[in-house]
């Protein structure tokens, strides 16, 4: 138990006053032996024990009255979340510094019934109320969009800040922790409490990120000067249930198609709906999808089967002159409004061009074939195979995808063997960097010879190691089937990644996200995080002696086509971008065409909607990332492992609950005081004499 006014506890010795008065009164009178009184005392000796007990009870109740009054004035609070703050218990004030790490990701917008307060609103309100109650000298907010410390005047301001409202961008909890650490060090803060409000989604916390070990070591140096308070919303929206009754909609494709004579134009739309329900009857219901396209609206019923519903190639007619536009698809309201709408743009599809960089004729032929065969007959796809020495002649303006199977080029300042000259590795590295910054996609395959591996430099923070033999007929142990190049199809069926045979693979060093892993834990396919484009590293080649990527060509074909389609989007006049992937400064100049009008222009990059770049006229659709539709959360043991031995307290909450984090219990002490006073008064009442004793005395007197 903690106290908001602990200095009042110094008055607790006042509870001894009734006892002191009793002892003083006992010494005020001298005992004198008197025969008549001795006879009366002898007659009442059997009741002496009860009288002593009654006197001690009266003293105890009087002392309890004073103690309860002191406790009530001290304003006691009952909360394990605030326990252990020594400084606060002595001074009666809250922590000197409070840093709030606020997860604003779409999953935090879920509520218990779709109408009550969301997780985010509940968390902000409870933190604000708690800090107002216990007090804090300095309050700093670090929210998941900007990840920049912002000083807040008072806890009540948290309720009004737009930067504490909903967002469509995923959170990066380790980055927010690093920002808090840097703020503590830069300002040399003393006693500090770090409040974390999150729903523990795995993709937001990134439990396998190497930054967590560094964070543990850095915060451990502060000892108990820095304490962590986790306000977790990991429980289901319905208390005691695993059913969340939530559906999400996501566009898979929207492109313009014209007839041969250009007399008609149509938009072909493909989308997917996924449901979280475990109830098969609920998951099998059809869902009405509202399609808004250029101020026209239509409704399409999508049947659900096994919690998944989809439509593919749904045609929406347009005027013949229209070549560009935007729209959205929406499903009925449920427990989370953030995943009920998805925005899209469409344009005349640009030609898809792939450059295969390899000196191996067989590998070049396989990769060229996989890139040129398009799944849509209306799309044009061209691929060419070039040697690493002929890159200077490539026109990069219309390239969507680069498949690189050669030694990694060295950067211009690396001092490597090929870092100078007209066709140097430095020029190649610079061209690849510029290509990725523009939004292109690159998939790297390892070179065959050990000499080329040894000559490979570090590129995009990654570097090839050596060839190693892989044991087992089917060596792929796990892969990500929820997003990226190896995601399952719209029908929900997964790619046959597990049936791939991998005979040899090359180790790779660097920070990347493994999309597929071999049995020994080494990555088969990895993605390097970049602001715009996509960079992937595949640790084997399509050669028969290395793997069955060419023989079992489904996986290779799908991953190349997906990378090609994503890279082609950067060439057109429209684009689809994940919220938070574009720098906020760049998005500020965009004009909002659709979406939440109340959002600040400084947060255009983080809010779902459709925007027009005022400089280029380009249409940009911003949506939540695919990771946001995954519902996996960290387990209790995983959370404890991330914090290790750091001073850490966790409180689990549920969206919509109105209970405060701190509860003042002084009323209970006042009630206790009143009960004690009543009990003391009852004990002080004179004893009622029996009626027969009164009658006897009356007869004697007569």
Automatic annotation (TrEMBL):
Disordered: region residues: 410-429
Annotated InterPro entries: Aerotolerance_reg_N (IPR024163), Double_TM_dom (IPR011933)
Domain (Aerotolerance regulator N-terminal) ranges: 1-76
Transmembrane annotation, as ranges: 6-24, 56-74
Keyword Transmembrane helix: yes
Keyword Transmembrane part of the UniProt annotation: yes
Keywords assigned: Membrane, Transmembrane, Transmembrane helix
Amino acid composition bias (Low complexity), ranges on this chain: 410-427
NCBIfam families linked to this entry: two_anch
Name used for this protein in its record: Aerotolerance regulator N-terminal domain-containing protein
Organism per entry: Allorhodopirellula solitaria
Organism classification: Bacteria, Pseudomonadati, Planctomycetota, Planctomycetia, Pirellulales
């Amino acid at each position: 138990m903690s106290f908001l006014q602990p200095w009042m506890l110094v008055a607790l010795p006042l509870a001894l006053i009734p006892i002191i008065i009793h002892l003083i009164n006992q010494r005020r009178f001298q005992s004198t032996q008197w025969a008549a009184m001795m006879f009366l005392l002898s007659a009442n000796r059997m009741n002496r024990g009860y009288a002593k007990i009654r006197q001690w009870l009266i003293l105890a109740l009087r002392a309890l009255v004073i103690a309860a009054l002191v406790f009530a004035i001290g304003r006691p609070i009952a909360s394990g979340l605030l326990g252990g703050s020594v400084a606060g218990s002595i001074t009666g004030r809250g922590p000197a510094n409070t840093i709030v790490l606020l997860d604003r990701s779409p999953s935090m917008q879920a509520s218990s019934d779709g109408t009550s307060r969301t997780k985010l609103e509940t968390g902000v309100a409870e933190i604000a109320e708690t800090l107002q109650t216990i007090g804090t000298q300095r309050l700093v907010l670090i929210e998941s969009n900007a990840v920049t410390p912002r000083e807040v005047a008072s806890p009540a301001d948290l309720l009004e800040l737009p930067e504490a409202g909903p967002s469509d961008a995923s959170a990066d909890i380790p980055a927010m922790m690093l920002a808090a650490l840097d703020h503590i060090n830069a300002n040399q803060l003393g006693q500090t409490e770090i409040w974390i409000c999150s729903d523990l989604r795995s993709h937001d916390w990134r439990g396998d990120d190497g930054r967590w070990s560094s964070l543990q070591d850095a915060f451990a140096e502060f000892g108990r000067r820095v304490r962590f308070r986790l306000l977790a919303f990991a429980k289901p929206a319905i208390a005691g249930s695993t059913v969340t009754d939530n559906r999400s909609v996501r566009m898979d494709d929207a492109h313009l198609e014209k007839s041969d004579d250009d007399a008609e134009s149509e938009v072909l739309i493909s989308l997917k709906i996924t449901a979280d329900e475990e109830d098969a009857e609920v998951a099998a219901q059809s869902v009405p999808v509202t399609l808004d396209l250029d101020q026209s609206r239509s409704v399409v019923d999508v049947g659900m089967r096994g919690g998944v519903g989809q439509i593919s190639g749904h045609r929406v007619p347009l005027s013949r002159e229209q070549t560009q536009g935007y729209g959205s698809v929406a499903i009925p309201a449920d427990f989370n409004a953030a995943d009920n709408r998805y925005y899209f743009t469409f344009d005349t599809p640009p030609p898809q061009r792939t450059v295969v960089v390899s000196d191996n004729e067989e590998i070049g032929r396989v990769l060229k074939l996989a890139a040129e065969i398009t799944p849509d007959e209306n799309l044009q796809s061209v691929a060419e195979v070039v040697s690493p020495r002929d890159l200077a002649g490539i026109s990069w303006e219309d390239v969507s995808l680069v498949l690189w199977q050669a030694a990694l080029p060295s950067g211009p300042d690396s001092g490597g063997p090929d870092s100078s000259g007209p066709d140097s590795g430095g020029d190649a590295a610079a061209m690849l960097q510029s290509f990725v910054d523009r939004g292109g996609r690159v998939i790297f395959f390892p070179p065959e010879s050990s000499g080329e591996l040894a000559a490979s430099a570090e590129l995009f923070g990654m570097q090839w190691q050596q060839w190693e033999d892989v044991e087992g007929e089917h060596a792929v142990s796990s892969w990500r089937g929820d997003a990226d190049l190896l995601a399952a199809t719209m029908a929900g069926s997964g790619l046959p990644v597990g049936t791939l045979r991998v005979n040899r693979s090359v180790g790779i060093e660097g920070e990347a996200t493994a999309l597929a892993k071999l049995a020994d834990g080494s990555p088969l396919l990895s993605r390097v995080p970049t602001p715009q484009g996509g960079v992937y590293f595949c640790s084997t080649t399509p050669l028969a002696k290395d793997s069955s990527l060419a023989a079992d060509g489904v996986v290779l074909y799908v991953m190349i086509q997906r990378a090609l389609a994503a890279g082609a989007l950067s060439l057109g006049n429209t684009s689809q971008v994940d919220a938070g992937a574009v720098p906020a400064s760049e998005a500020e100049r965009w004009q909002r065409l659709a979406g939440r009008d109340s959002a600040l222009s400084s947060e255009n990059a983080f809010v779902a909607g459709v925007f027009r770049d005022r400089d280029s006229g380009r249409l940009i659709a911003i949506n939540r990332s695919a990771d946001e539709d995954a519902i996996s959360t960290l387990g209790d043991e995983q959370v404890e492992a991330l914090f290790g031995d750091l001073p850490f307290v966790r409180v689990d909450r549920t969206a919509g609950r109105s209970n405060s984090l701190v509860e003042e219990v002084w009323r209970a002490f006042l009630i206790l005081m009143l009960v004690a006073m009543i009990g003391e008064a009852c004990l002080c009442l004179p004893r009622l004499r029996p009626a027969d004793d009164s009658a006897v005395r009356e007869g004697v007197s007569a």
